[in-house]
TrEMBL record:
Residues 35-438 form the Major facilitator superfamily (MFS) profile domain. It comes from the Bacteria. GO terms for molecular function: transmembrane transporter activity. This is MFS transporter. It comes from Mycetocola tolaasinivorans. GO terms for cellular component: plasma membrane. Keywords: Cell membrane, Membrane, Transmembrane, Transmembrane helix. The chain crosses the membrane at residues 35-54, 74-95, 107-127, 133-158, 170-193, 199-220, 254-274, 286-306, 318-337, 343-363, 383-405, 411-429. It is a multi-pass membrane protein.
Amino acid sequence: MRRSTFRAPSLFAYRNRGPRMTTTLVPRRGILERLGLTAPIAIGLAAVTVFLIGDGIESVWLANYLHTAEGFTVAEASAVITAYGIVVAIASFFSGALPEALGVRRVMTIGLVVFLVFAALFILVALPSQNLGLVIGIYALRGIGYPFFAYGFLTWVLNSSAPEKQSSVAGWFWFAFSSGMQIIGPALASVLLPGTGAIATLWVGFALAALGGIAGIVFLGRTAEATAPTEHGGASAALARGLSILWRRPKVSLLLIVKVVNLAGPLAVAVFYVPYLVSEIHLPEYLAINVFTVYGISAVIGNVVWGNLGNRIGWHRATQWIATPLCALGIFAYYYIPQLVGPNFALIALASVIMGAGASAYVPMNPLAIAHGHGETGAIMSVLNLGAGLAAVVGPGLVAALVAVTGYQGIAWGLIALYGVAFIVTMFLKLPNEAELRSAQSAQIAVPVGH
């Protein structure tokens, strides 16, 4: 009997015995590659997430702390958050232009240093002084930090990724952003506050932001493209393009309005809802904070769901008929469910599920905006960043303006009215050729709203 000469193929290739016939087996892709990531980007995202946990650890309870522990009125506490939002808005817009002139790593370093300096001053100087002007000034300047650091990293991610990877990578950035600032940060605060108190919790946030920030800066120091300015013009030119598109293409101005309203609701709720639940509904503070953890989970899941469904439903249709009504319903539920059921966390959390689903349903607005930009994608993204920042002014500002006049019920109806305005404005943003554009830009829809 002839002895078999069969040999098992190697892992990657098998050469047939026939003449010049070679079959190559493609190696199995790794987990990160299947997720649309590379190892360097995954490491950077982890660092950004840790930074944002530290940055956002006080986001949903600070207004209540300023009111109950530091003696400020709800309107004064809201003014602190509003001033912070103004600086965030300006920094968000600049974060899209400065990397071109300074390099991404330098912009991120500025953001980290500014955050750490003013976070320390806020804890050591502003809060002990109980001086409203000092609290407003120092906390507001801290708002330069996260837009420069986080959005600066997003700039590097998009510039260093192949075009076909940019959508999925941007989606993972917003997943990390939401996870750090809206889920893990508030959840960690709800655990720390009862046992360690507010000041110790703020120091934990400071330490986490420093850890994530330093890790991110060190990591980016190994990438040449993150350290050098780009060749697309100076910061002033980029800023000019981002501003002038508002009057060169008037529908972009309408998109800015919708973007502001999109995030103004959740940001306003973050200011007034914990005081409302604690003082009027008598829900324990740690449970009131966890209401926002539920919102974050709902929004993160919604980013994925609406990112996939938006292209089928239609960008304009999803924005007008799903996102806006759901957000209005969520605000309605936020106020009236506690009025009906009292301090029942499970039922109150349903409002967060609705609100998270509605806020994330604005995902298709990104490709809708890009389509209205007619190729000026950079300017469009600057406008959307500006809208996200302005929302941090409008939301808390509405609370500050109404709380003493109308109470919490008036705030809720004021926000519902804003979503009504967004619904009307969106009517004028239809694209006659949207179906063709959706087919051509299908890879763009998975970029969650930039929170």
